Amino acid sequence: MRRAHVALFASIALGVSTLAGCGSDSLDGSSGGEEKDNGSETKVEVDDDVAKLVPKDLEGSTLNIGSDASYAPNEFLGDDGQTVEGMDVDLFDAAAAKMGLKTKWTNAPFDALILGVTSDKYDMAVSSFTINPERKKQVSMISYFDAGTQWVAPKGDQEPIDPDNACGKSIGVQKGTVQIDDLDARSKQCEKDGKQPIKQVVDQKQSKVTASLISGKTEAMLADSPIALYAVKQNDAELEALGDIYDSAPYGIVVPKDDTEFGEAIAAAFTSLEEDGTYEEILKKWGNESGATDKFAVNP
After folding, report:
1. Based on the number of CB atoms within 10 Å of its own CB, is 239 exposed (0-12), middle (13-18) or buried (19 or more)?
2. For residue range 68-108, what is the model confidence (pLDDT) as tens digits?
3. Which end of the chain is more exposed for a tag (fewer CB within 10 A), N or C?
């Protein structure tokens, strides 16, 4: 979400209701869904060696992809309030082009996406999923990017919150993310130490988490590092990064558990993108070069 999208994100972050009805809050109430050959500005040609790896039943098909478009700059709704855009979209559209496939993106709540894949509502989900053992019990995941956790606090004269001692503080977090587990562990430690637990303020969308912090509803928030740092960049008069990035881990594209053959094709497509420079070009476009990886693997 840069260039023309900067103003849009600022409106979302400040709680402006311009797009209040555009996002989806249920699995069935999706938006977006346009079919396209390649969403990246970079023209990507089919890699014949990669295309040969695509399972026969998927050759030449259009992939129905679920994504939570509230996580700028990785995935967000464009100026029309319907089209899913962002770094993840550019990356996977380019990978699909390498495989000779088209894409159709559908906006849906983050915590409903894996269910959408396991129930065949979506062919796959691409939405900044951190790879972890719990998720790999349900689906297969293909690594394509590295991210950690970053805390964010209001900028001002107040005493900064210590993430390692946030007991009794109101902390914002998005539902269904690995940061929930992080806060749960910290809160349990607070109680063991005889202190007040952390007051978790959980929202369905990251844009609402950010808005709550700016408005003073919460005292800090934590999110994946690309998203947290982008929020700081877009709201630098109100927010600042708190502490260092930690617990770096790979993001994974989600496919059905048994679709490892297709997963290998996706991994090969990303390898091809890295070799021809397209991968780095897309990350640079979104300011996320620091998360680049060369480890594209199924269930790493």
Report:
1. buried
2. 999 999 999 999 999 999 999 999 999 999 999 999 999 99
3. C
- Calculate the CA 176 to chain-centre distance: 12
Identify the structural domains of the chain with CATH numbers, from first to last.
Answer: 3-147+248-291 (3.40.190.10), 149-247 (3.40.190.10)
Q: Give the model confidence (pLDDT) of 241-299 as tens digits.
A: 999 999 999 999 999 999 999 999 999 999 999 999 999 999 999 988 889 999 999 99
The closest alpha carbon to 198, from 224, 218, 228, belongs to 218
Sheet holding 31-36, edge to edge: 31-36, 102-107, 62-67, 124-125, 239-256, 139-154, 220-224, 170-174, 199-203
From CA 44, how far away is CA 270, in angstroms rounded? 12
Reference 101, options 255, 250, 298; nearest CA is 255
pTM: 0.76
Q: Count Cβ atoms within 10 A of the Cβ of residue 200 and give its class: 0-12 exposed, 13-18 middle, 19 or more buried.
A: middle
CA-based end-to-end distance of the chain = 29
What is the rounded distance in angstroms from the CA atom of residue 166 to the CA atom of residue 54?
A: 48
